[in-house]
Amino acid sequence: MNRFRPKSARVLAAVAATLVLAGAAQAGEVEVLHYWTSGGEAKAAAALKATLQAKGHTWRDFAVAGGGGDSAMTVLKSRVVSGNAPAAAQIKGPSLQEWAAEGVLANIDDVAKAEKWDSLLPRQISDVMKYKGGYIAAPLNVHRVNWLYANPEVLKKAGAKVPATWDEFFATAEALKKAGVIPLAHGGQNWQDFTVFESVALGLGGVDFYRKALVQLDPAALNGATMEKVLATFRRIKGYTDKNAPGRDWNLATGMVVKGEAGMQLMGDWAKGEFVAAGKQPGKDFICVAAPGSAGAFTFNVDSLAMFKVKGDDKVKAQKDLAAAVMSPQFQETFNLNKGSIPVRLNMDLTKFDDCAKASAKDFAASAQGGTLVPSIAHGMAVPAAVEGAIKDVVSQFWNNDRMTPKEAMTRLAAAAKAS
Ligand code: BGC
């Protein structure tokens, strides 16, 4: 027996070495471009990193600060043009198709088929993740954009109520102003102006108007009486923001509501991630309600990771493992608890989620059923990037220039809608 030992030991050693080698060949690096740098966002990004590392892979962080992702997209373009694309990047909505058409994205259909993504995603979302029938991106969540956040203590002190309509919004804003607090926390950056604008368009104009004007880009809707009212209301809101708003980051604006320096903020539910990261509880320390006039509707914004073509079996394996992990129930739960959004994967257990998230999930399903689910134009969901950018610029020019009339802005909006 003894003389066999050395041999079997050698065999075992050889087998072990092969396994180690195989393991090494499988462990790869994934460079991920994102713009999740605020408190809540960073926690969510850390969950993504931990998920990848748990699979034995290495995470290379490619964070480009700047809410809404405009700076990140500029940096991404230059990296791709110079032939140095990251393995994954946070790209959303119609832009996914534009990147895929450039031939730079990888097909991850094998992962999607093995994990049965078609049956785990709402059709409206899985379609966006595909190019010519094959998956090119993995969805992370569903953010709702038409939210209003408020500090209940500040409202109480001012004798003001949480507004459900735009008339009520202005009554509350006036009461807050009289009480000496900033009524609306706002960051004057074009994507934040645009976020407020789309909520006014939805709440005042209604779902049909929103769809006609900001999804179908119908010239009559962009240039009609309802748009004029929307623009006038949007301008009126500016009077309830503070003089330091220009250039302020969105999370600093949320911080003002957290601290009671301001009463309200109109922002998507990544803002809820900030309240939660600051240790605040919904219903008690802060209130979340649908933006005025938009209770039955839902502007959706789905974050997704597009996969770029990478070289090397190890890198491809790591990239595919990341894609599979992103859709797993565990990841969908942890990521979204921190991010402020709800899972995109259907039939998830929401026990650990707070009332804002539960309301969001309920409204998401109801609005999908009732035809009031609309894509957010301010967050890359509704129209091609060039058109979005052109409309966003007009909205911000109008916000910043009190001499521009609503009529003038409307003519410019109709022209911007033709940008390509
Ligand atoms: C993205 C979110 C992000 C927010 C602020 C949105 O467009 O979808 O993931 O948290 O911008 O940067």
Secondary-structure topology with pairs:
Blueprint: H1 4-26, E1 29-34, H2 39-54, E2 58-63, H3 70-81, E3 88-90, H4 94-101, H5 109-114, H6 117-120, H7 123-126, E4 130-131, E5 134-135, E6 137-139, E7 141-144, E8 147-150, H8 152-157, H9 166-178, E9 182-184, H10 190-215, H11 219-222, H12 225-238, H13 250-259, E10 262-266, H14 270-277, E11 287-290, E12 298-301, E13 304-307, H15 313-326, H16 329-339, E14 342-343, H17 355-370, E15 373-375, H18 385-400, H19 406-416
Parallel strand pairs: 1-2, 1-3, 9-10, 12-15
Antiparallel strand pairs: 3-13, 4-5, 6-13, 7-12, 7-14, 8-10, 8-11
Helix pairs in contact: 2-14, 2-16, 10-12, 10-18, 12-19, 18-19
The chain binds beta-D-glucopyranose (BGC).
Residues 35, 41, 67-69, 143, 270, 301, 303, 379 line the site of beta-D-glucopyranose (BGC).
Question: Which key phrases capture this entry?
Answer:
420 residues, alpha/beta, five-stranded mixed sheet, four-stranded mixed sheet, 19 helices, 53% helix, globular, binds beta-D-glucopyranose
Low-confidence stretches: 15-24
User: Mind describing the biggest β-sheet?
Assistant: 5 strands, mixed
Gyration radius (Cα, Å) is 24 Å
Beta content: 5-15%
Instruction: Catalogue the ligands.
Output: beta-D-glucopyranose
Helix content: 40-55%
